[in-house]
Amino acid sequence: MLTLILLAIPLFAAVLSMAAGAKNARNLALGAGILELIITLGAFFLNGKEGSETWLTFNREWIGPLGISYAFSLDGISLVMALLVALLLPIIIYASFNRTFKSPHYFYGLMLLMAASMMGAFTTTDGLLFYVFYEFALIPIYFMILYWSEHPNKAKITLKFFIYTLFGSLFMLVSLLYLYNISGSFNMQALYEAGRSLSGSEQGWVFAGFFIAFAVKIPVFPFHSWQPATYDSAPTAGTMLLAGIMLKMASYGMVRLVVPALPEGVAEYGTWALALSAISVLYASGMAIAQQRYKLLIAWSSIAHLGVLSAGILSGNAQGIQGGIMEMLSHGILSVALFFVYDIIESRMNHDDMSKMGGIREVNPLFAFLFFIIVMGSVALPLTSGFVGEFLLLLGFYQVSPWLTAVAGLTVVLGAVYMLRAFQSMMLGPANSATQSFAPLNSHEKTVLTILVILIIALGVYPDPILSVANPSVESLLQGLNR
Amino acid sequence: MKEIVIISLLGIAVLALDVLKMRKLVLPVIMLGLLGLIGVSIADWGLNETPFAQYGGMLTFDNTALSFTIVFASIALLWFILAGDNYTAGTSQRTDIFALVLFSLCGAVVLSAYTNLVMLFLGVEILSIPVYVLAASQRKNVLSNEAGFKYFFLGSLASAVLLFGISLCYGAVGSFELKAIQEHLSGGFYSPLILTGSALMLIGFAFKISVAPFHLWAPDVYQGAPTPVTAYMSTIVKGAAFAGMFKLFGSALQPLPEAYSTAIVFMIAITLIASNITAVVQTDTKRMLAFSSISHAGFMLGFVLTASTTSPKYLIYYTLTYSIASLISFFVIQHVAAIQNEDASTDAFKGLIKRSPVMAVSMTVALLSMAGIPPLSGFLGKYYVITNVIEHEHMALVIIMVITSAIGAFYYLRVISAIFTPIENAGRIMVSDSTRRTLAVLSVLLVVVFFAASLLELL
Amino acid sequence: MEKLVTLIPLFPLAGFLFITFLGKGLSKNFIGGIGSGAIFLSFVVSILVFTTQMHGAHPTVVKAFDWITAGTFDIDISFLVDPLSAIYLLFITGVGFLIHLYSIGYMHDDEGFNRFIAYLNLFVFFMLILILGDSYLTMFVGWEGVGLCSFMLIGFWYKDMKNNDAAKKAFIVNRIGDLGLILGMCLLFAYTGTLRYDELFISERAIGGLPTEVATAIGILLFIGAMGKSAQIPLHTWLPDAMAGPTPVSALIHAATMVTAGIYMVARSSNLYAMTESAGDLIMWAGILTSLLGATIALTQNDIKKVLAYSTVSQLGLMFVALGMGAYSTAVFHVITHAFFKALLFLGSGSVIHGMGGEQDIRRMGGLKKHMRTTHLTFLIGTIAIAGIFPFAGFFSKDQIIAVAFEENKLMFLLSLVVSACTAFYMFRLYFLTFHGKFRGTHEQEHHLHESPAVMTLPLVVLAVLSVVGGFIGLPHAVGESMHMHWHWLDHYLDGTVVMPALHMDLNTELMLMGLATIIAVGGIYLAWLKYSKRGELALEDKDITSATHKLMLNKYWFDELYNAIIRKPVDAISKALGSFIEPKIVDGLVEGTGAATDAAGGKLRLLQSGSLFFYILAFVVGLIALLLYI
Amino acid sequence: MELYHNITINHYLVLAAVLFGMGALGILFRRNAIIMFMCIELMLNAVNISLVAFSKMWNHTDAQVFVFFIMVVAAAEVAVGLAILMMLYRNTHSTDTSVLNKLKF
Fold first, then answer.
1. Residue B188, by phi and psi: left (phi above 0), alpha (psi -120 to 50) or beta?
2. Which of A364, A423, B218, C11 has the most CB atoms at less than 10 Å from its CB?
């Protein structure tokens, strides 16, 4: 029941927003986001309580004979992912108050639509429905970039983004259908059984289909080349949605579909995937080091972190997956924070060339302080959210492939190299004529950054509520896999 | 039977109204007639459970035939509403064209209900001959003439080939009845006559549905024909041809040797590759949609490939959803091109979102549906095809389908990009309320039909 | 009583939070009071905890809250109280408190005073977590946390990019070590399924089943972490640069506490290292090389803090030598005495710098003993202590290391004597150049010279006392017996917590070694006196130096330049190549190329649509014939 | 009569096939629209021949009835075709089909 409500709120709000017009659109969206958060928190408290089943799951036939149903369930993993959406949505909306948009009712409407689709993808237990939500999320973000971006090359960039990710996900569809052909139902449990009944090499092929889809979206080297340009051209709210939530659908898909359904495929053929993930880390870190512009730097840093994420999840053990779940949440928060910092800087400087900044700390110590904590979260310092996820990922990864872990682990070092460089060159040193007049944070920037920073630290110090909610579900997901 | 009578009478009535100078009544009469047709079809539902063949057993309106009839009638209804704007009310050209469409629709109904190869041939001809005329109906326009002429010639050639195939089948079986053919084939013995005959019929249909290598006429004809006619051709004509083909290959010519499905797989593959790749370089949206239509035909041929195990309802679903999207897109092109000197290039769509939001949004929805993006019903159509093809283990074909789908998205999105690219001093494009409402309803339908796909199981 | 242990890190944390969020507008003395008071409270509690441990209380784990759960992996934030952590607590909070006190005076005129005290508090918090954590992962929290504070404090004066670079270097080099530590933890977990000390070493002895190679690998990986934190070759280059931070930072973090975390960690893992010879050998060699390197470089440095920094590197090396030879308690002993006298020396140097108005070059000093009496006296005590003169603290701990080396490995023994000689020499060089002779600075500086305020000298005095008596916690058998005192108290105290080597040394040998060490130290002192006090040989400018070895040492064996050439430049070049060639031309080029190829294919394929009826019919007929032939 | 008895169904079929092929080739190689029309008629009539032969073979009249249908349809087709051709002639003043290449690529 709650799952339906979670889906319905953003959907209705989207329609309402588009119908009601520009006035108050953003407040409406914010309201919907907060409501969503409250209900998700409610679901969190219900989790594990007696009789909560009826509240947290929903199952109706859709296309009965084909074994497709409107099935949703908020188990531990989905709850955390729902929290990711519900937590970040109001923050992203509130963060976007900084800017004014043309036709805001459509802008926020699309945003809410996207939230609905992501919420759907994270909570459904039907394979086809997952695919539907996964794909649908492309549409709103596509229009958000196409219509609200000011990038001169946006048409080409959005086209590439759309086609590339669509191309990838069609392979997932093929793999899904292949499994479905055996199971006769899209129920996830049925798909798991179907997948496990396949021979090793068949599992390998099915895995390849899934991996291409997810590797494009996560993204993993060498399927990443759509990402930096897309992040760059999207309006910041769009980038936040993309980096913070949307791309997590792919890693979530790995958790939900690939690992439990194709144990042998992952074990035998996953080495390639793991190697690509590890290369991803190195490659993206190298690219991040080469960047002059802050937004591109964080775009690449995102790829580097997600390389670890994909490797950890694909290692298919409890540590890797728990780490993956934690990292998805944490990376979502950190991405939003890092891109919000971009937005603040860009709104004042009108550019994000790091070499032309410096000394902002002197002018605006509060901003520098908050930014510093975000940077520390990004380099995965213990007691920030980034650490818990990244450590567990490496721990999981190590049990499968020690040497690749050592390679992927270089993110610990390289991440510090580029993040500290970015921080120091923008914030530290003497202020120059351009940064001298760096305006203080306004109250709502302060609020957003503070909330994000509190989240980063709170989840790092006390991640237990998240981890212990997810843990039983992860264990039941891995049940029957001898890994 | 009633269906055929109703629709024929309706065509005649339209002509009569023309003669009686009551042309204002044409459209309402057609609406009523088509609604009546739909009503009758619904009333006849379930007749196949009691053996009740009509017309000497040559037509059987079983549920499949009825549902095809309902789909064609509804699409025709929508077509009339949308096309109503494009022909000046009260002219005899308008009534002529409407009458021709109705007659052609009669052929479509016959094609969905035939149980006899004679009726198959008659259905194909009744369907096609009015369309030859329609394609060439812009008398002063050389392009329209050319389109009509090409269509006519190649169409006649294809009819002849189909006919020869029918003849050879008859020679082998000794009957035109589909049932007899199936009994003959189930013996497991394939005489050269029937093999050649079915190959020729396959080619005849391949032409009608425009799959490679028999598709070359389609882009030219689609581009040259008046846009409403193109819309009609890509929806009902194509759908009816598929209805006929599916019945022939699904219930009569079963089982055929492996080579036939290999040939069909090959045809689908080259259709998808050729059409999608060529569509990428098109600048004229109408021609681009013609290639898209070919590509969809390739997908729909997947149902024929797997006809032995597939229920026709999925083909009906595909036809319906593709037709809706196709109607929207061709009529939007019609309106956009009409006010800019028949310029239907991609650039003509720039700024459409400001110039006519309804058209822009419905066009976008239609294109996305054709591209197969969920949650638009075009996705489910493609999904049904791919599931079936996977069931028959043509994995290579599946991969081609998938890759070409992605290529397909490319050219659809290019138009969408143009629609949302702002331009300066763009005047609004005015269209009638009925068109606007219809387009809006249709695009909503594309979403609703996705989520309500379970209704399909009623069939 | 053990439950109180939770309070120990909480006080500094509370101090940090209070100063950061509520400290605005409060007076500096008040802030300083809060900061030092927090540490003092921790110190008091630490004494209580230590007393119970000293009287033989059982090691206890105090759980604070659940932290990470993932399948079988389960780590809490819990604190382990045992003799090792208790004694560390004591000297960290003790020395920490003194340095806080000192900072109130030293940083009084700095605009970032609040920030400084807050950071120091935070540092102590993390250091305490490091020590108290009941598992490797909890230790790692503190481990990284102190790294963070080190970063913030090195770059404390952030307007100067040089400081920021030093801070960044420290952080990144440490991170390299941390990666080793992380991998070590992963390996440990992969084989034992736990990271908790208790389960690993005591209650379940989970390390019991480890194959030797694995134990070696874990040992080496963990040691890589220690290399970073404790500045061992090849990860030592950050520590001298870290002197860019304010002097109390150098005293607290980069001499007394944080840099000895590596020793703590190895000592904590003594059960593991006891299983493997080779890891120990590696540690020993890395230690002695670092020690020699630090000692020789220190011979030539002219920056007062750099000399002390290299001295720290060298002393840390000695501690690792002890660890490598299995004498864990000896290493801990040296950690403690070193904390006293090195903190003292740094604070003394800070006092000097304070008096000199920021000047750090000993070539510009001289004759300061007249102007700064307390500083001079305490500094001298510290110098004697580090040089290893009986009965100062350094003598006992260093002597114990030399004794172990004598038993275990004669080559180590000789090399550590060399280090010992160098130590005495460079420390007295520093002492003579700073406090004796004529003043070589500017007039203004001479005019400005003054003794530091009491808040700064008081800690100096306390530390000086500790530097004198600190060694008594580990009196050698020979001395202890003759003085009727408890000998090897520390060894007995730590027995059972860390692995003890089986040393059997007769009293004569012991006495002989003590004598030898003293002679060598005195020899070093004499040479320094001869060269710098009597003859006054000193090259005032770098360019006057001609000797190649001198240049080599002065330039720190060109380690920085080497790393620049083999790591930093290639990384930059590779990322530049990625950005300008590989990404756009190859990776993205393939993607774009696919698009372009499709486009080109479309351009060709469209030619099929020739528009000619003939061609269409031809295609039809050909298709027909092909199909008929095929079927 | 001898001759009659030796003529089997195959002979008719071959005749039909040859006529059909001739028609197809005619369409393929001739440019004049009128001649192309006639070729189509030829093809349809080839089919008629085969149908009549089969009808005799199976002793059914079905196929013969069908032939009438075909004739009617063919007539309708020609009517439409000629109408289109007339229109085209008015616009282009030619019955040569090779001028029809405005629509391409």
1. left
2. B218
Classify residue C4 as exposed, middle or buried by CB count within 10 Å of its CB (0-12, 13-18, 19+).
Answer: middle
CA-CA distance, A54 to C364, in Å (whole number)? Answer: 81
User: Which chain B residue lies closest to C621 (C-alpha atoms)?
Assistant: B214
For residues A389 and C133, give the distance between their C-alpha atoms in angstroms, rounded to a whole number. Answer: 20
One-character DSSP codes across D30-79: --BHHHHHHHHHHHHHHHHHHHHHHHHHHT-SHHHHHHHHHHHHHHHHHH
Q: How does pLDDT run across B435-446, given as a tens digit for each residue? A: 999 999 999 999
In this complex, the residue of B263, B274, B410 whose CB is nearest that of residue C605 is B274
Domain ranges of chain C: 321-541, 560-630
Q: How far does CA A36 lie from the centroid of its chain?
A: 18
> B–C: how many Cβ contacts below 8 A?
73
Report yes or no: A385 and A373 within 8 Å, Cβ to Cβ.
no
CA dihedral C507, C511, C512, C516 (to 10 degrees): 150
- The CA dihedral of B322, B323, B324, B326, to the nearest 10 degrees, is 80
Structure tokens at C505: 């040394």
Domain of residue D40: give its range: 31-99
Instruction: Please report whether residue D18 resides in a domain.
Output: no
Classify residue A111: in a domain, yes or no. Answer: no
The rounded percent of chain C whose pLDDT value lies above 90 is: 15
D12 in a structural domain? no
Encoding tokens for residue A242? 């993309």
Give the CA radius of gyration of chain C. 30
CA distance D7 to chain B (A): 16
- Min distance D44 CA to chain C CA atoms (Å): 16
For A393, C306, C380, C436, the CA distances from C352, given in Å and listed in that order, are: 49, 14, 13, 13
Cis peptide before B375 (omega within 30 of 0): yes
Closest CA to A323 of A266, A388, A274: A388
CA distance A120 to A114: 10
Using a CB–CB cutoff of 8 Å, tell me whether C605 touches chain D: no
Q: Would A305 be classed as within a structural domain?
A: yes
Q: How far is B199 from chain C (nearest CA, A)?
A: 7
Q: What is the CA radius of gyration of chain A?
A: 21
Quote the minimal CA–CA distance from B174 to chain D in Å. Answer: 6
Domain count across chain A: 1
How far, in Å, CA of C310 to CA of C171, rounded? 19
Rounded to two decimals, the ipTM of the complex is 0.89
Is pLDDT of D100 > 50? yes
In terms of residue numbers, what domain contains A291? 287-483
> Chains contacting D with at least 3 CB pairs below 8 Å?
B, C
- CA A310, A314, A315, A317 dihedral sign is positive
Domain count, chain D: 1
Task: Give the global pTM.
Answer: 0.92
Instruction: Report the alpha-carbon distance of residue A25 to residue B377 in Å, rounded.
Output: 29
- Residue D105 in any domain: the answer is no
- Tell which wins on pLDDT, C205 or C46: C46
Q: Do chain D and A touch: 3 or more Cβ pairs under 8 angstroms?
A: no
Closest Cα partner for C108 from C246, C303, C250, C254?
A: C246
C7-17 and C28-54 helices cross at what angle (nearest 10)? 170
Residue B214: DSSP 8-state:
S
Give C355-408 pLDDT, tens digit per residue. Answer: 888 788 888 887 788 888 888 888 889 998 888 888 888 888 888 888 888 888
Touching partners of B (3+ C-beta pairs < 8 Å): A, C, D
pLDDT at C250: 86
Domain-located, residue D23: no
pLDDT at A483 over 50: no
Host H or E run for residue C70: strand C60-70
CATH number at residue D61: 1.10.287.3510
